[in-house]
């Protein structure tokens, strides 16, 4: 299966009053054509930075220091202004976390959707686009302002805008985080249906491991600005080979028994001022050895997935022995 997007050794830092803080520390990620790939991790792991880097829509204080990203054959960081505009317009679609900030509060929904569509669409075409995103009563939604819609409806409007030009890659950054639990499943199901209909790839950045387990073909786990484990969802989330993936699952709600306590991950995510020459998870890791604090682990194949851990086989065996 070919890749629609590929990041190789990407390094991105943010300029701050304390100096340059490294958000991506040599991140590698390939998005296959037609798949749903979920990128999961704590806040500060680098997943949103990596997603936004795919379209070079990083904030002004971000600096690309090294590495390469290609989307549908375009070198994103080397592209000129016209090429980049065409890429964002025709090949990429973005669904952001808070639909109320993604939409223009002063403009009716119909006009916003029309501006995203090619040509000069009529009311019937706009209504059809809203219907594709499973919005009931599209005629009423077209006349409404964003504040007159529920959170779930506003997010579906954002989805309708994102798919208006049939993008090759749809990037959804925490698309269900601001929604009620009952709506999250429906929104993810809509995104997957639209992916299936269009043949596009769907890249979802999320905290919700349980939701991603049900909807993603593959899962990439990020920590310290790197993808530390990536593989088929069932393999990675049922029997993790990286201790951080294992710790994330233990801390995630949704599968605990009555009276059972979740296990928070001890310590805090790293603040990187430069390249990490060791394992960035070592200070929080129950499997850590001397090698982990001295040698930077590199990606390698372990049991059907790619993992960055010196002792992945030991972690994997322990995961298989643990009760599910």
Automatic annotation (TrEMBL):
SMART domains: AAA. Residues 5-249 form the ABC transporter domain. It comes from the Bacteria. It is found in: Cell inner membrane. It is a peripheral membrane protein. GO terms for cellular component: plasma membrane. The keyword ATP-binding applies. Keywords: ATP-binding, Cell inner membrane, Cell membrane, Membrane, Nucleotide-binding, Translocase, Transport. This is ABC transporter ATP-binding protein. It comes from Pelagivirga sediminicola.
């Amino acid at each position: 299966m070919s890749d629609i997007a590929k990041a190789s050794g990407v390094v991105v830092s943010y300029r701050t009053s304390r100096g340059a803080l490294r958000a991506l520390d040599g991140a590698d990620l390939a998005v296959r054509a037609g798949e749903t790939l979920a990128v999961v991790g704590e806040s500060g792991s680098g997943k949103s930075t990596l997603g936004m880097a795919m379209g070079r829509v990083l904030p002004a204080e971000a600096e690309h220091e090294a590495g390469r990203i290609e989307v549908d054959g375009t070198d994103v960081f080397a592209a000129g202004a016209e090429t980049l505009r065409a890429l964002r317009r025709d090949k990429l679609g973005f669904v952001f976390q808070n639909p109320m900030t993604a939409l223009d509060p002063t403009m009716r929904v119909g006009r916003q959707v029309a501006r995203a569509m090619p040509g000069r669409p009529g009311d019937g075409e706009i209504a059809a686009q809203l219907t594709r995103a499973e919005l009931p009563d599209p005629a009423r939604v077209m006349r409404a302002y964003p504040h007159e819609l529920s959170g779930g409806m506003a997010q579906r409007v954002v989805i309708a805008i994102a798919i208006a030009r049939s993008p090759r890659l749809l990037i959804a950054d925490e698309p269900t985080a601001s929604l009620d639990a009952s709506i999250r499943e429906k929104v993810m199901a809509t995104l997957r249906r639209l992916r299936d209909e269009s043949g596009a790839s769907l890249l979802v950045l999320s905290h919700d491991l349980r939701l991603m387990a049900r909807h993603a073909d593959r899962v990439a786990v990020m920590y310290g600005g790197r993808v530390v484990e990536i593989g088929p969802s069932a393999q990675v989330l049922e029997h993790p080979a990286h201790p951080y993936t294992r710790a994330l699952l233990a801390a995630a709600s949704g599968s605990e028994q009555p009276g059972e306590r979740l296990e928070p991950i001890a310590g805090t995510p790293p603040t990187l001022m430069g390249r990490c020459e060791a394992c960035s998870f070592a200070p929080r890791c129950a499997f850590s050895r001397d090698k982990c604090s001295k040698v930077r682990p590199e990606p390698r194949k372990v049991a059907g997935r790619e993992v960055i851990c010196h002792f992945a086989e030991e972690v994997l065996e322990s995961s298989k022995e643990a009760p599910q």
